[in-house]
Design goal:
single chain; 268 residues; alpha/beta; five-stranded parallel sheet; 12 helices; binds D-glutamic acid
Length: 268
Amino acid sequence: MEENRRPIGVFDSGLGGISVLRELVALMPQENYIFYGDSKHAPYGTKTLQMVQELTCADAKYLVEQGVKALVVACNTATSAAIPILRREYADMPVIGIEPALKPAVLVKAYPRVLVMATPMTLREEKFRKLMDKFKEQAEILPLPCPGLVEFVERGELEGQELEAFLSALFAPYKKQPIDCVVLGCTHYPFVRSMIQKVLGEKVLIFDGGAGTARETQRRLKECGLLNTSGERGSVVLQNSLGTKEMEELGRLLLEAKQLSPILNKSS
Ligand code: DGL
């Protein structure tokens, strides 16, 4: 196959990375994509560093063996655990990672209170520490590990009383001194964005890194002369390590829903 018509490989610990895939398809509809979600091993964010590094390398290998021209690590956790390893291993292809979109959030006003929602691993790793250090003079940054939230998305539970109660308990400590913005530092969270907004109130601004990652991917492909310029609409193949019909359907639903959330109501 002609070099630049080869697919872009996108992966995540599960279905969350589809929020990044949506941005990629919106920005570069002429590209072909293979998305691999490792739902069998999700969540990654509460595992050990070594386990996440091993799983991430296996995900990347699986896609590279299918002939992808670039790798998009659509998972903050996998990026913080293993991006240097992947860049070393696949030095001859663009490898793009994702990190919490802190920069636009700290700029919303003078010294805002910014809540960064992510997995325990993302917030623990050096990559995030460095990012936080960079902006610590400009904002009050409050890291909020959210173990358990990924599982709601993996179940396709994007709204409802249980999710609302989970989020209310999570945000309870911030009730007294309200926050200005939230950064969604995990690619699963955009799928529960409406519920986060509902619980925190309409005034809170919410940021996620999906669109920025898509723009960075486009920039890197251009730089390497790998953009698909065929002019035709490309294809999107969804693969999941669970290999079940349910996961396939949920993946399609998350990819194709007109609005990100509430998705399940929209489709029924
Ligand atoms: N979607 C992933 C992220 O962006 C991680 C979820 C997990 O814990 O598996 O961090």
